[in-house]
Write a structure and sequence with these properties.
78% of the residues lie in helices and 0% in strands. It starts with 10 loop residues before the first helix and ends with a helix.
Length: 273
């Protein structure tokens, strides 16, 4: 047991464990509503939008450590744009997300080619697959602030958000501001995804949102229980994945997602039984 828990004694692993647990819980909590609304593809779309924001930051000469503050407003704007198209009813959610994500990613590729070679350099592999082991104390503060703010906002709007998710028409007739809640959820999803990109990368972040929530939905009986179970899966799965990656000396982000995938497989077996 002492050997197994050895990573907890290493400072960079301690920061990674805290960041992974917070991000895993946040993504799972947001994922409960994303999955229930049939917007599972939104994670991929906003991750691609975050790539466009990161590329814009590089073009402006912003360092990778401060890239979040450029990617954040850019991704939120894309999320609100998707919400606007969905509210108009012109396109289905997956189509609108696909269009915005493709344009954002293409813009990111274009901006990367335009950046000055004298500016800050970035490892594209780190952006794509994350660098949770390189989480700095400043990153940890950012994750903590986003975690507290998101949790408080969801706590105050949980009942109305659940109402608007399951029956938006009746909720609107009851006086619930469904449109505002929809935009808030999309904006929060964008914020959480931008923060999570630092841990598991653009290529894997959508799995962080979808897998815990989808697993919990299979076995949960109410949205409250589904949320609690999803958060537990996100937090524990992230911690176990990090410990396994440390001992196996493999990529941390991928190991975390594979751990969550294994839990999903167990959920399928449990549901079948």
């Amino acid at each position: 047991m002492e050997t197994l828990l050895e990573p907890l004694l290493v400072p960079f692993m301690q920061r990674a464990m805290i960041a992974g647990a917070v991000v895993g819980g946040l993504c799972a909590m947001i994922g409960v509503f994303v999955v229930q609304r049939g917007l599972s593809f939104i994670g991929d779309g906003l991750a691609h939008a975050a790539f466009g924001g990161i590329a814009l930051g590089l073009l402006l000469g912003v360092s990778l450590e401060r890239m979040t503050w450029v990617a954040l407003p850019f991704t939120v704007m894309i999320a609100l744009g998707i919400g606007y198209v969905l509210r108009r009813g012109s396109l289905r959610g997956d189509v609108a997300t696909g269009v915005f994500s493709a344009v954002s990613f293409a813009l990111g590729v274009l901006l990367l080619g335009l950046r000055s070679t004298d500016g800050p350099q970035v490892n594209v592999e780190t952006v794509l697959f994350g660098s949770i082991l390189a989480i700095s104390p400043d990153d940890l503060i950012t994750v903590g602030v986003v975690g507290v703010a998101t949790t408080l906002l969801l706590a105050f709007t949980w009942t109305k958000l659940a109402y608007a998710t399951f029956d938006p028409e009746l909720a609107a007739l009851s006086g619930v501001k469904v449109a505002a809640l929809d935009y808030m959820l999309l904006a929060l999803t964008a914020v959480v995804i931008v923060v999570a990109v630092k841990t598991v990368g653009i290529a894997l972040v959508s799995s962080f949102v979808v897998i815990p929530a989808a697993t919990a939905k299979m076995v949960g009986r109410s949205i409250g229980r589904v949320a609690l179970l999803a958060i537990a899966i996100g937090v524990i799965g992230s911690s176990i994945g990090l410990i396994l990656s440390y001992h196996a000396n493999v990529a941390s982000g991928a190991t975390i997602i594979l751990t969550l995938g294994a839990v999903f497989g167990l959920g399928l077996l449990f549901k079948k039984k």
